[in-house]
Amino acid sequence: MIILILAIVITLFAVAMRNRKIKLPVEVLPGQFRVILGQQVEFYQQLGDEEKALFEKRVQQFLSTVRITGVHTTVEDIDKVLVAASAIIPIFAFPDWQYMNLHEVLLYPGSFNDKFEQEGGDRETLGVVGTGAYQNIMILSQYELREGFANKTGKTNTAIHEFVHLVDKTDGAVDGIPEIILSNHFIIPWLELMHKNIKAIKENESDINPYGATNQAEFFAVVSEYFFERPDLLRSKHPELYELLVKIFHQEPPTALKGE
């Protein structure tokens, strides 16, 4: 009987934790942070006034729970804002979302290797979600973080790429199938579309970044960058992908509707 009662209590506690609401911070986002959002983050620029206010609260909430630390570099206000914006953009349609699997973001000035060394000729990594000793840590190139938002015509954004990996990881596996946000009846269509597009990339018949053909996880992250950076172009060139990503992220990027 005691075991049964204990099991019920644990179950009720788990349900309550899953359904609890995020308390957005009382503190107002500093004015200089809002200026940076308005100057650097096109996603934010295209939102309506109420959505901008919500985005600002989400940014402030993220910055109040995740440390951003510079390694051989100085973290400036622009870095804090861009890291937080990168985190919020993919999950903006999920008001109760928190990155429970992230405690700190480390900023390196440039690229690094698979041993996290910043010197040498094999430094090809620009961002990574940590494992092992680096569990709950993300590492980003400060240069690429800023470049991802400065380039208004590109289809890549390293920081968004890594946060999409974190979204993917929330269900326990980084496999390109974000079951935490993807309805079950869309899983098979998504798998079929992924494999079709990975094949096209490998045959040089796609404008999607070739890195997306590495595996399913990288395809999801790469095409998500494309979705949020150039949704208009993705919708034009890959309408099926675009429509499924709208369903996955429960949103249509505001920049996709710019000019309509």
Structure commentary:
By secondary structure, this protein is α/β, with parallel strands linked by helices. The chain has one domain: Collagenase (Catalytic Domain). It is 50% helix and 7% strand. Strands 1-2-4-3 form a four-stranded mixed sheet.
Proportion of β residues? 5-15%
Terminal Cα span: 63 Å
Order of helices and strands: HHHHEHEEEHHHHHH
Q: Biggest sheet, open or closed, and with what strands and sense?
A: 4 strands, mixed
Classify the secondary structure makeup into a structural class: alpha/beta
Question: What is the level 1 CATH name?
Answer: Alpha Beta
- Using only C-alpha atoms, the radius of gyration works out to 19 Å
Note the overall shape.
globular
Total domains, how many?
1
DSSP summary: helix tally: 11
Q: Approximately how much helix is present in the residues? A: 40-55%
Spatial arrangement of strands, main beta sheet? 1-2-4-3
CATH topology: Collagenase (Catalytic Domain)
Please state the second-level CATH architecture.
Answer: 3-Layer(aba) Sandwich
The CATH fourth-level homologous superfamily? Collagenase (Catalytic Domain)
The total beta strand count reads 4
Topology:
Layout: H1 2-19, H2 31-40, H3 42-45, H4 49-65, E1 67-70, H5 77-88, E2 104-108, E3 127-129, E4 137-141, H6 142-150, H7 158-169, H8 187-202, H9 216-229, H10 231-237, H11 239-249
Parallel strand pairs: 1-2, 2-4
Antiparallel strand pairs: 3-4
Helix pairs in contact: 2-5, 4-5, 5-6, 5-7, 7-9, 9-10, 10-11
